Amino acid sequence: MNLRTGIVRKITQDGMALLAAGVLIAVVVLAMAAPLISPYDPAVGELGERLLPPMTKGHLFGTDPMGRDLLTRVIYGSRISIIVSLAAVFLAGCFGTAAGLISGFYGGWADRIIMRIVDVQLSFPFVILALTIAAVLGPSLQNIIITLAVSNWVLYARLVRGEVLSIKEKQFIQAAFTLGLPDRRIMASHVLPNVVSPVIVLASLEVGRMIVTEAAISFLGFGIQPPTAAWGNILSEGKDYMTTAWWLTVFPGLAIVVTTLATNIVGDAIRDKLDPKLRLQ
Fold it and tell me: Does the bond joining 227 to the residue before it have cis omega, within 30 degrees of 0?
């Protein structure tokens, strides 16, 4: 059974994980089909229809202070969350894995330099570091992806380094050294395949955190800027109307909670499948 088949089987055998995967699939489909689903423009509204409550005049989630359809903005906002979270996790995973491989495989000064950088970065609170980088780079989709990737690569680097230090002591790695195989081939063909599973587990669990962090940064005004719809700036625009127009914060907030919860449940199922320590219990 290959890796992908095993993960799919694990999810389908777990009712909660299957439901969570269905939610994620629905979010992705809605995001991709947003122009076909909604007849409204997410950035343009009718001032005569501002702050309409849910289920009024064809607006299922109501409208915002600019008269824009809230459901449309929530659906379009899911695009930002999906793109940012997946891209940030991919970039952080690639860079962190490479750094961890070099650190654990070669040791010496390379290990000391990389790990000191990791230690220094981990000494800063994650959100504060992300906000600082976002403020320096400026608000844009590309910059928020870079911000989250730069803030998160250290987790992968530390994880991979620990795995590599353990794998280096295995007999098949020592045999590869004895045969005189080049370092690059040993890392690519023998070490890297054995650290892929823990990296996938960490990445699957980090997607949800990236969604929440991107929303927090956008909420504070350092991420995606209006009128582009993002869950964080939709919440920010609605915070002044919490007592008079509850739907402005409830619906985007629920979108964040449900999507993040679904990613965490799927991530737990992937971890249960790939983590050898859990399989032995």
Answer: yes
